[in-house]
Amino acid sequence: MLPDRIYIIGYMCSGKSSISRKLAARLGYEPFDTDDLFEERYHICVQDFFEKYGEDYFRKFESEILKKTGEKHHVVVSTGGGTPCFFDNMQWMNDNGLTIFVKTSPLTSFHRIMNAKRKRPLVYGKTEDELRQYVENHYNSRLPIYEKAQFIVKGENIDIEEVMNYLSQL
Ligand code: S3P
After folding, report:
1. Which of 79, 43, 44, 45 is closest to 62 using CA atoms?
2. Mutation test of ligand 1: which of 112, 122, 131, 146 has the most ligand atoms closer than 8 Å to its C-beta?
3. How far, in Å, is the centroid of ligand 1 from the Cα of 1?
4. Which of 28, 82, 101, 126 allows an S-S link to 131, with CB 3.0 to 4.6 Å?
């Protein structure tokens, strides 16, 4: 049976939003993005919020936004790269939906972040070398948490059929 909520997790620039939109379209579910929900709720972009109020507040509100999605049905929720890594968020997602980890290598993540248009507060202003080093360490520190997901899909060449096939066996 299909779960009511599907949570897409993974590092920055892994392609979470894209897979979440595609999956939602295939399933007839509604796609959501926790960063978008945050920005709609607080009327401020994530980058500016980080600068003004700091990461701790962001994490607190991010967790609240995430848990509010527990009231929704037939949704695919794309989460921020750090969402599973704070408080009990990862456990909560596993208890309240199905989690899918979109796994990219640290090198892919580094290249994609370098070329991304959207500013990301955790990596903003870093030189190329600093960014490469940061992503490598940061990614590895988060990996054990991401790996608690119920299903893992490769982010380099996302195969939506692989996900659909997995879901059809539930
Ligand atoms: C973050 C990732 C961002 C956003 C915030 C923090 C992180 O989302 O939530 O900048 O801690 O990895 P994306 O994963 O969509 O870039």
Report:
1. 79
2. 122
3. 31
4. 126
